[in-house]
Fold each of these.
Amino acid sequence: MSWLGPALAIAGKDLRLETKTRDVVASVGLFVLLVVVTASFAFPTAGAGREGVAAGVLWMAFLFAALLGMGRSMAIEKEDACLEGLLVSPAPREAVFLGKLLTNLGFTFAVEVVILPLFIVLLQLRPGGGLGLLVLDALLGTLGLVTVGTLFAAMAVNTRGREAILPLLVMPVSVPVMVAAVKVAEAGFAGGMGEGTLSWLLLMVGYDALFLLVALATFHHVTEE
Amino acid sequence: MDAAPALGISLRGVTKAFGAQVALDHVDLEIPQGSFLAVMGANGAGKTTLLKTIAGLAVPTAGSVRIAGVEMREAGPRLRALIGVVSHETMLYADLTAAENLRFHARLFGLRHPREAVERAGERLGITPVLDRPVRALSRGTRQRVALARALLHDPAILLLDEPFTGLDEAAAASLTELLEELATPERTLVVTLHDVVRAMAGPRRLVVLSAGRIALDTPIDTGSEAIAETYLGLLREEARR
């Protein structure tokens, strides 16, 4: 059995669930919106270093949005032993991981598509030609964060304090991709590629590839008793 | 064609420990194809762990579980597609309708015509009128029927049922007993964990009793059902004294 069919079935099922409950969009969307609006009041409208601080705040918002969404998306599988239902099917475990990864990427990107333009407008940033770089940054950074988060969410789902444990597991491991994403976002807000931006982008590509492979190789062990 | 014996389940020296707690302790069990086996025992005796181990959801700490001669640890999609599992939890998404749940699982099992498979399962389990209702809105008995429909969508050769009577009223339980008898064909293996010794006497042809993770009794169920029931209750009393 290929990975793609079951992975798409799982992601499609999650999307259908979300259209009915709006659990993730409501909780994550409101939280991130609050962060962006608050930041827009707190930040100076001019001055040096604004881009760096804005990049940091943006990625903190993305990180917490992803954590909230991933925790919720895996908690759904815990209710009524639905995860066991996936695991006893002939779908390869890697396909189950990819399905949940697609779901989490979809939810996080959906939030980012709304938040990034809003963030730029409210904080009066002028990325100009750096907009494409910001989009690439969001794609690579989110892929890394969500790959690690999906794996750890599957680990944390069987623990008692899963909502508290997930950030504790994800945050230390996501430091490299977060730093790189912030650096690239800073360059993006400043108008385009700067010194060292390419290295940060390559670091994200390497991080994403490495953790995607690690997650695919270990998800089997993470989900078995 | 002599494919029938190949789908037997074989447990050799299976031990499963969760930290210091031993759930299964050197269990040896042969379940030939076509068996209808009831597994009983007190709470914590290891019944659910035994089923999870056979289903490939739990990996034995020691020993081996083989289905059709293949180690479950290395089971590929083809072998897993032969197994249907009904847990005492439904494995259904409460906010999806029964039909949406079933179509999703039909796709996971790679069925070519998911809609037709769902319709057939709906008719077989008598749940067609509730297929478009959210699972959350269904009674416990109807949910259990949907869960059975999910497990039967792919017509599995091995059906594992973990306390399927839990929470059912008498009418739903009687209906489930009839269904299990109907499903118990020479081609299909049924393993069902139970609490109620009367139910074990109504359908299953063999009884295994687990006590503290070990097999305390393994007997065919035929004419001596009263003696078996008495032996079982005696084992429970003995365990309670310990």
Amino acid sequence: MNELPQQLVNGLLLGSMYGLVAVGYTMVYGIVQLINFAHGEIFMTGGFGALTVWLILPGGTTMWIALPLMLIGAILVATTIAVGAERLAYRPLRGGPRLAPLITAIGLSLALQQAVWSLYPEAKSARTFPQIPGGPIELGPVTIQTGDVFLLIAAPICMAFLAFFVMRTRVGRGMQATAQDPDTAKLMGVNTDRIIVIAFALGAAFAAVGAVAYGLKYGVVDYKMGFLLGLKAFTAAVLGGIGNIYGAMIGGLVLGIAETMATAYIAHIPGMQQLGGQSWADVWAFVLLIVVLLARPQGLLGERVADRA
Amino acid sequence: MRNRSLLILTTAVTAGALTLTACGSRDDKGGAENGDNGNVTVTIGLDAPLTGELSALGLGIKNSADLAVKTANKKNYVKGVTFKLESLDDQAQPSSGQQNATKFVADKTVLGVVGPLNSGVAESMQKVFDDAKLVQVSPANTNPSLSQGPNWASGDKKRGYKSYFRTATTDAIQGPFAAQYVFKDAKKTKAFIIDDKKTYGAGLAGTFKGEFEKLGGKVVGTQHINPDTKDFSAVATQVKSSGAEVVYYGGEYPAAGPLAKQIKAAGAKVTVVGGDAIFSPEYVKLASPASAEGDIATSVGAPIEELASAKEFLANYKAENYKEAYEAYGGYSYDSTWAIIEAVKKAVEGNGGKLPERAKVVEAMQGVSFEGVTGSVAFDEFGDTTNKQLTVYQVRGGAYKPVKSGTFGG
């Protein structure tokens, strides 16, 4: 059992990444009741945005200078695409039937994937991502990679920032008001169109931070990286209670740790060898989701609200 | 009201799209039976992943097959016949492979198909080709059950499809060959075995495990991964605490690269060993050259750069200025294509100079024997190659270098 601390850290790191992406799903859903299936692809474009900045920078730039610039590049690309998508694809459909924006989101997801695949140079297979130099950091029984340090620092900062933003700022209170009742919020003088754009942009910025962390952690970015991760992040958002930003973070961490534990330990349970290992981890993660939703249909932190449709 | 008009619109668009695709596939009919100079055109189909993660290998296969077709046409190798290569992309997906197979079968000018790369894709194509009696020669499938039936390991070998042939050596030889090298030459006795649960990967890992344990090696752990994810940290931690000296991975380089990288980053002092599907410069790139150093891959045949028989192929490949390298299966693809050309030649000659039916080409293939790029090419009673040579490659200075060639002797 001496690998348990390390496995917990592995799960925590994976979960932090899920959480960063899940925030985008949950915020958009909380405000416009839209499951933005293109969010995984917005995450992916953030990764390519960071890669582009790295390729433009002169060779040999140290990561201390490059990383902040890459982060800005990633956030710029991802928010631009998310805001553009909101303006061009989702806003015209806002009054329409609820399935229309959902199908649009799926179409947008495919379009973004294929656009990167065909237009970005050499993106038809995985592209290598720059790495933070230096060896792993040993902390007692736990080893942390240099690439993971970024995620360890960035994820809590992002989450704290978001909590502060939503709770304490004027715009954040506007978001809460719009989530509760868009019509009343509008009557009270909240510019709901602006609030919706901000929700999309903020979600995209978080996804972009997640994408840079992904590149640093795994060393590659590819046009498909948003698909599976987006699906997992969406699962995390549902697990935590969709619409609740703290739920997204908790859901991400629970999902990440559950997957890691399933990979590491299920096969050790007598009679379960066939159902263990990483290839079954997703199955166990979804079993967990079903169990949680059976007990708490609103998710871990979600509140039961009357359907507004 | 709006809902209804939307529904009608969707239906109209779908119907339109279906009609268009139907028109598209009708273009494949055998219109080019007679070329302009009295020559008959015979199409050789090619199926490989031309896009996606495995496209480096797939494009190498396509270019090499193209070279064989061009050479045959230039030499006018089969009198009265002009060959044409028709390439379809399977994206390494069994479902796409099967669709492509159906397309080839529907095109009457197709007399043989080269491909696919993946054993899992081959499984989905075999029956389609066999029902149509269309010959298929794969340059890269290594899973034994494709030719010897699902119970090959217990000695109950049965050929399922008479139309299936391959120029690549099987994993029944490749896995054990790697096990012998690891145990006897590299002197490593503790292995952690990982596979991706695909036809190729699980089969290869199984044959490695069998031989490694027979030799006296110890398997300290096994894991099955999902090749679609990139997070292998939990597996890496397990490998580290298992005390393994080698990790044998049954699977392909897109997952193998990040897996090897994460295992080594976790602090495990291991050599990663794999089969022909990690024998690609892409593996070194994805694992990062520093952490891939010392890793081992086995691949079918001998390195063609060192074969006298491959000199002409290498020179011609260079002269054609293909954009992509021929990669691991270039020589085998050329030989697979050439085997089809030889079989067509024999069948044409046996048919008084006229184009034979497809079944005759399958019959002719069984007796094909010639000196190819990779050595002598001929097929045994299962459709497997009689050339059982394999080579061990090791990453040295950031690139795979051959270290030992040989044949596996039980």
Amino acid sequence: MTIYSLYIYDRHCTCVYYQDWHRTRRPKPAVEGGILPAVSQAVVAPPPESNNSTLAPYSSPRNTLTSASGVVVAVSEINAQSTASPLLQAPPSPIGVTSTGLAFDEEVKLVYGVVLSLRNMIKKLSGRDEQFVNYRTSAYKLHLFETLSGYKFVMLSDPGTESLRFVLRQIYVGPFLEYVVRNPLITMDSKEYGIDNEYFRASVDRMIRGSSFFP
Amino acid sequence: MNSSLDHLSPTTSSARFSLPSKSTSASRPNIYERNLNKSRLSEVSAPSFSFLFSEIVQYTQKRVSGINDLERRLNTLGYRVGSRVLEITAYRAEFSSKAPKREIRLLPALMAIHTQVWRAVYGKPADAIEKSVENVDEYMIIDNDPLIERHISVPRDFAGLSCSSFSAGIVEAVLDGLGFPARVTAHHTPTSTYPTRTTILIKLEKSVLDREDILK
Amino acid sequence: MTTNSATPVLKLSSTSFMAIFGLWVINKAGGLVYQRNFADGLAQLTANEYLVLAGTLHGIHAITSRLSPIPGQSSGAQVIEGETFKINVLLTLTGTKFVLLTSPAEPASTIDTLLQKIYSTYAEKVMQNPFHTPEMPIRSEAFDVSLGGLIG
């Protein structure tokens, strides 16, 4: 069983975090302004110079992320420029990586749109306050876990996987509480920044790699 | 085997027809090359027939102005089939006989329609022949589950329409061909066990009844 | 099935029972051409609401096939799960969708077989009926009766 990617959305419908594993078909980098800073380095276009200067006053870990200029193809360069752990960078792209043809910011919106529509559809059909759990296509399976505070954890895995809701819940009660909620340098609900930070990324990564689903 | 005839065959000479490829037609000759007398194994797929008949009804429906008109047209189409069916069933039944015969009495003729014609067209005999109690000139052939009605669901605003008018046309042609002119109509007479049960009503011309009386 | 399903005990059991709640047929343009409920357990919606949901499902189905994280073609969503029911989708080569709402316990193989049977019934009773206009709402007594036999 394989886990492909993780998206976290806040209650304002914006993507605040993204991470992927074994994903062999990637989106194009997001257009500038398409997604918040500090969501994931792997999927943003290199910011122009002017942008860098406005972000300069910040020195929080998340800021090193946004200021690191680099795209997926230029991993060694990023390492040279930033002091951040290699985990924060995109994993070196395998040779066979192809593109979905979608920019990352569009992909993020589509994923959210699908999740929200299905959530509403399930509620409407059941006539109760029932949650949408997952859906499966021939190529992948999408899992949703929604917190009471409106955060949505979305995970893509291979279609044969059992429900991964509990994994998403573990991410929520573990790394998310520990390194996002209790992290004073992360402004939750900021509408301006994502929640990416070194410890959270490393911790989620460790959790996923350590789980029994990881090949 | 018949390579010299290839250019004459309507199927091998052109690609316009999507008929079975040569390899299959070698083991099983296509419909034009089959022996006229062999009726076994010359079956047509039921869905293909259903789709064709469905198209016939739709085509006809576009060109008529009411249920009666539609039934009349289906009857006419059936009539053209019936006159050919009579020809081939008569040929198949009698070609080997030393003294070929033709039915001249009504009941044997009806029996022939009930059994031979139905089997040739629908692959099974009809279910009953009845004589009307009220009218001496009326006879009925009953099919509990007509093949052509199997997938047809007549909408409410077409109430009373029976697509078996096509079968009625066949019967009318056969009777005509045998010398029993009649007016034949189809009626939907469902029962709880047979929701598509259909009655083919035959109203014979007076001349036929008169002749029957003489022959008695 | 149960006349007094208001009691919590029966409500619980109704979710663990295998059940088929309903069937939709969605044409290739996303229009709902057939909708029928078979068992209680889901909300009773108006015809218009079903129409909207079918349109939504049609759109989602198209998007889900584009979100695949791996190379190669992905189908659209085949099974969508809620907590007490799931939505099973069969997309035919011609673009018609058969959507079966069932209890989550219903095994995938049973549902696949059933959807195939429904498809073949549709081919017979709907497509071979001269009074049916393709892509338009299905009004066929024969189809209703045959489905009743399949699903009960």
Amino acid sequence: MDIDTQILVKSAAFVGAGLAMGLGAVGAAIGEGYTAAEANGAVSRNPELSGDIFKNMLVGQAVAESASIFALVVAILMLFLGVPLNNLLNGAALLGAGLCMGFGAVGSGIGSGFPGGQACVGIARQPAVTPRLTTNMLIGSAVCQTPAIFSMVVALMLIFMGFDKAPLGPTWAALVGAGFSTGLAAIGSGYGGGLAAGASCEGISRQPESVGNVTTVMLVGQAVAQTPSIFGLLVSFILLFKRFPESYELQSAMALLGAGLCMGFGGIGPGVGNGMAAEGAVKWVARNVKRSGELMRIMLVGQAVSQSTAIYAMVVALVLIFVV
Amino acid sequence: MAIEGADIVKAAAFLGAGLSMGLGAIGPGVGEGMVAAKACEAIGKNPREAGLLTRTMLVGQAVSESTGIYSLVIALLLLFVV
């Protein structure tokens, strides 16, 4: 039994590292590809600015890259850190950490690519506002990274928290569920935040005098788009810190795994939807800056409705954890 | 550690409830976001019709919400009834 446990925990670390880096590479690559594609279009439109555009492209891509660097760090930690091999729960935690970091990097990687690409296009269109565009791009894409950072926090907690005193059943399901909850929910928030940030770079380049209002509405919209990933983080923390009474029935384990999957998947749609609403608002604040109050109000109402399904998902997840 | 039939059924109901609400929440979230984005666009173009557009947005979103509510109902049925 002892040898078997060691083999299983070691295998979980390897599978988890593979999932973290494999899934984690998806988003950043797509986002950086988008930035580079838009940069090419911008250079062909205005070749004499190729230096500025090239520099901006690299800065934008570097921010998008950070999501996959988090995944790389987590994967390397899982491979080389001597996690105690004598407890099957450590295996479940490592698997959960890999899933969390891998899924969590997807949305932030793709999302951070949008402001990078739109800032490159904007430089070609309106060279005079280059510094403002770069600043706005950096603010927008930094906010896009927060869901990936939440995922990294949960992944590191799963790797480093000891689970020696917790019973194997149903804690193993709570740990895997905690990984799913934050990891999956981060996809929508990262992607949605990127939509808003991209629209703001586009808007500033069209109407440079709208920059203050555009950045404000972008940040408010992105903040609302982050909430599904915060719900995911909340459910993960409950799953990590609550002590579950020992039970080897399948149902108590599946209730906790189901709670993580519910909140994780349930966060994706509202995150993307909130981002779309923010994208529409930011785009039109730039074009019609006098109406920014009305646009912000309608954005918030629309986002509140779009948020409702994430709240249903959180309610069902909490019922699965605390009631059944 | 013996797993019994009733336990497997209950476990499947819990997992199904989570998947139902989780996956079911994706569509309405994205769809309602699209509605809100277009409403912002329309109000940006034609601010005088803001009231009418807000009403249209909310009714459209309510319809889009329905599938999310179906998912919630099925999840609650799986949790508490069947």
